[in-house]
Structure formats: structure tokens, C-alpha cells
Amino acid sequence: MTVGTFLAKAAPLRANPFTALTNPDYQVLKAEADAATRQLRAESAARKVGKKKPIACVPDGEKIGILQMLVGLDALPASDRKLPLKDGYAKVLARTYPC
């Protein structure tokens, strides 16, 4: 799923948070966000093993919540909305927790 698709599907849920959990797209979006997080963790671990520069330097114990993730994705330029969610989320993390 692209960043743009993710944000488009999330818009109705954000507009009416009281019914978000009952919206069928909620589980789809949650799964996509979880998958992107898992992929980034695996990529981060591989970069560490390969002694490559990390994508982001998230302090121990810190994590980004879904609302902060959405705000960060909203702030990406239009050209980045075509990126896969994982890559857009990586940009959000890099901007939020630069090395």
C-alpha cells in the first residue's frame, strides 16, 4: 500500500474516531502499519549487522504512535505519497529521530 492510499483510507477514520474501531478499514490499516514497522525493524537490524548508517536513531524506549505517524505522513511532500508505506514511514522516523 502506498502512503497516499494509506492516508486516503485513514481519512474517514480520523474524521470520526468514535466509530474508527468498527470501520472495516481499521484492521486493514492496522495490519499495514504493523507490517511496515516490522519491515523497518528488520531492515534496521540488517543495517546494524552490515555496519551501515541507520535509517533513524530512535532512543531506547521511544516509539512513535499511530497519530504521530499519520501527522508525519501528512507532512511528506506529494511526490512521497507514491512511496510504499514502509518507505514513507522511514522518512517520518528519520525526520523525527535524526542520527
Structure description:
With 99 residues, the protein is mostly helical. The protein has one domain (3-15, 22-96). The protein has 4 helices and no strands. The longest helix has 26 residues, at 24-49. The mean pLDDT is 93.
Topology (SSEs and partners):
Blueprint: H1 3-15, H2 24-49, H3 66-75, H4 85-96
In terms of DSSP E residues, the strand content is under 5%
Largest sheet: none
Query: Tally of extended strands?
Result: 0
Which class do the helix and strand fractions yield?
A: mainly alpha
Helix content: 55-70%
Give unreliable regions as ranges.
none
How does the overall form come out from the CA principal axes? elongated
Rg result: 14 Å
Helical stretch tally: 4
Intertermini distance: 27 Å
Mean pLDDT: 93
Count of discrete domains: 1
The SSE order reads HHHH
Would you summarize the structure shown here?
The protein has 99 residues and is mainly α.
Features:
99 residues, mainly alpha
